[in-house]
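@channel anyone free to eyeball this complex?
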Amino acid sequence: MTTELQKTGSLIKEFEAKIDQDEKIEPKDFMPEAYRKTLIRQIGQHAHSEVVGMLPEGNWITRAPTLKRKLSLLAKVQDEAGHGLYLYCAAETLGKSRMDMTQELLSGKAKYSSIFNYPTPTWADIGAIGWLVDGAAIMNQIPLCRCSYGPYARAMIRICKEESFHQRQGYEIMLTLAKGTEAQKDMAQRALNRWWWPSVMMFGPSDADSTNTEDSVRWKIKRYTNDELRQKFVDAIVPQAKKIGLTIPDRDLKWDKKRNKGTGGYAYGKIDWDEFWRVIKGDGPMNNERLAAKQRAWNEGTWVRDAAREHALKKQAALQAAE
Amino acid sequence: MTKEEKETCLWEVFIQPKNGLSHRHCGSVHASDRELAILSARNVYARRGEGQSIWVVKSTDIVSSDPDKKDEVFSSDDKIYRHPTFYDVPDDVGHM
Ligand SMILES: [Fe+2]
Ligand SMILES: [Fe+2]
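replying in thread with the prediction:
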């Protein structure tokens, strides 16, 4: 007779074999609790980031400089809402309820990407966000399309298809400003100065200080480490900045032929991790505003949810009476 | 959160990309009734002309096979004669 313990042991073996063979794990398959927990945390944070990420850009929808820009920005922000929803639905397949996730975001318990705790004082910030923040998100997300958890991987494929428009529209805004008047070029450069370091930090702590990486790599949730992704990002962005005549605000940035296992890459300056941790812990320029905006939206939406529920109940009652 | 406010129903969303293809599962949405479920499915999963028809089905109405009985339900290793390669046909018969 097999004991419970032996049974769990063989299930874990089966799970690990699937992971090793690059097979996907689906919602009803056995998975170790730690795998489930890691995914719920990661997908939840990811979903919240998409949702909170609408706020800095939403700030400029009514003030976009042309109708074309306004339409693009509206479409982009709407996409981010969609991304949040794809991801919430992926997290729900792991047994986490939508209401729980919503409440965790509203109470401040759940984390979201720190990058959205920075302000967007000028139109150029919208360009910088699309180019750099969505650019960094793409670097992060492309390998997640091959993540071992099926619903997460499928959500990421959908998201990645939509992201490339986001980055292109941002870069186009920067390009247009950079080709404009001195004042416009200056505005673009200042936005790049503001967003560069926070974007570089988006990949998370350096590998030496990152606690979650090892398990996540073994389980094929993560395919590259934070520093590997950061390097890819820097290497991609530097020539794009040069192309439009903007300067990356890092005096230590230089070509280093030893990087990327000898194929070469850009060496960059020291990252201010104190700032990173400060913002994560709630002390960023916009943390309070972001949370307050989400709480306000939830509270002001109460009557809509109430009305929809009442309407559904009434219709159901009418349907039953007719039967 | 008001007192009665609890989780709204979960609906699974299926989209048919075009005639000739079947509806395919693409995700889920929360909605209090079917009209809102369709509306929401359209907003969430079809912003770029992804299809021409949407189905939504309450997740609780889906009946699925027991994942623990996968082997019993799907085993076919013992029925290899159901596959064309089981049959020997001379090579020079050509494609069959
Ligand atoms: Fe997104
Ligand atoms: Fe995006």
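from a first look: The CA atoms of residues 33 and 39 of chain A lie 10 Å apart.
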